[in-house]
Amino acid sequence: MTPKMKLELRRSEVRKRLAAIAALEGDEFTDEVREEVGKLRGELETLEERAQALILSGDDDAKPETRQTGDGERDGEARERAELRSKVKLGGYVAAAIEGRAAGGAESEYNSALGIGADRFPLELLAPAEDRATTDTDTQTTPRRWLDRLFAETAAMRLGITFESVPEGVSSFPLTTAGASFAMKERGAAAADAAWTIGVVEAKPKRATVRAVFSIEDAARLPGLEDSLTRDARKAMTEGVDRAIFVGADAGSADTADITGLQTATITEATITQTNKVKGPETLAEFAGMVDGTGAMNFADLRVVTSVGAWRLWESTVINSAADNMTLAAFLRAAGLSWSSRDGIDTNTANGDFGAFVGKSRGIAGAGVAAVRESGMLIRDPYTDAAKGEVALTLVYLWDLVLPRTASFQRVKFVT
């Protein structure tokens, strides 16, 4: 289907719906219907402008959209969406929400291309722009998904958590947890029946929010706030999700379960005593015990994220003679262990601090999944601080953390 054909189809659908609404009488014409009429008329105006642009451009409307092959596969629809993405602004959605209306113009078109409602906010706008060429000859680079770009700098992604964009409703993540073992059989001998165990973990939507307060003056200068709005909203969302993956979070509703983070999830826990946590061989032995020859074949296969307290301890503790002056961190690195650190992931107790979380990199894809809905809602509150001329906007989005394969993760805890 060509772009023009798709445009004409949608324009026909909008006109048909407007005609059906026009036939309504009396009480049938509710406030909701009036609001829908406004949105449809705005969309129709946009569709008319796009149709005129196609005619003036002289594009061959009989030419079907083409699909490339290779690692950089991008079809015509994807290129069209990328072009739309370059035109939309976060400020456009914010301004519309402040004014209590659905986004229009390029933002409305973009939502339509994504298949989400006009009143929704596409979370992929918070992801950094993709640093790659988008020409027809670009077939060597696989584009990164928006969630991969959005959470690229997080500790959770370094640990090996997979971020997935999921549709409305409950999402299921199946996993084969047990299966047949290999065995050679002599001629004429029958193979034993294979007992496969299939596990399914469900990701149920749980609410998270990012709140911002705008003054009337802020609303007037939204175009100049675009970069800071995007940066700060991205930071607030990724920081909240990343931290919850480690320590969990209240789901924000009595009707939904909490997010169970790696701090309390049922995963294998290694312990290091307060005495041994400043000793190189004893600390190294706990990490060596995580190398199982399957999920991790050596230290390089361990993805380690430590608490800041553990990082400081390792970097500042000298474990041998003053002449050598070797720190615990240097000893561990010399053995082949590497790590990064994150604040706020320990238990903040004197003797129960978590030292580190570990992901075993072999086969880790899908072992832990952060399932994020692709769109959220900007909820407007012009009443709470109306006397100050302020409007509060709350970005509400839904996500969940599931661990289909807990054996891929472990944690280290300091104990008495």
Structure write-up:
The chain has 416 residues and is an alpha+beta fold. The protein has twelve helices and 13 strands. The protein has helices at residues 3-22, 31-57, 76-87, 90-98, 105-114, 146-150, 155-159, 216-220, 226-247, 280-288, 308-316, 328-334, and strands at 121-122, 162-166, 171-178, 197-203, 206-215, 268-273, 302-307, 340-342, 354-360, 369-373, 375-381, 390-402, 409-415. The strands form three sheets. Strands 1, 2, 5, 10, 11 and 12 form a six-stranded mixed sheet that branches. A five-stranded mixed sheet has the order 6-13-9-7-8. Strands 3-4 form a two-stranded antiparallel ribbon. Strand 11 (375-381) and strand 12 form a beta hairpin. Helix 1 (3-22) packs antiparallel against helix 2 (31-57), helix 2 (31-57) crosses helix 5 (105-114) and helix 3 runs antiparallel to helix 5. The radius of gyration is 27 Å and the shape is globular. Mean pLDDT is 82; it is low at 62-74 and 133-142.
Topology:
Blueprint: H1 3-22, H2 31-57, H3 76-87, H4 90-98, H5 105-114, E1 121-122, H6 146-150, H7 155-159, E2 162-166, E3 171-178, E4 197-203, E5 206-215, H8 216-220, H9 226-247, E6 268-273, H10 280-288, E7 302-307, H11 308-316, H12 328-334, E8 340-342, E9 354-360, E10 369-373, E11 375-381, E12 390-402, E13 409-415
Parallel strand pairs: 2-10, 6-13, 7-8
Antiparallel strand pairs: 1-11, 3-4, 5-12, 7-9, 9-13, 10-12, 11-12
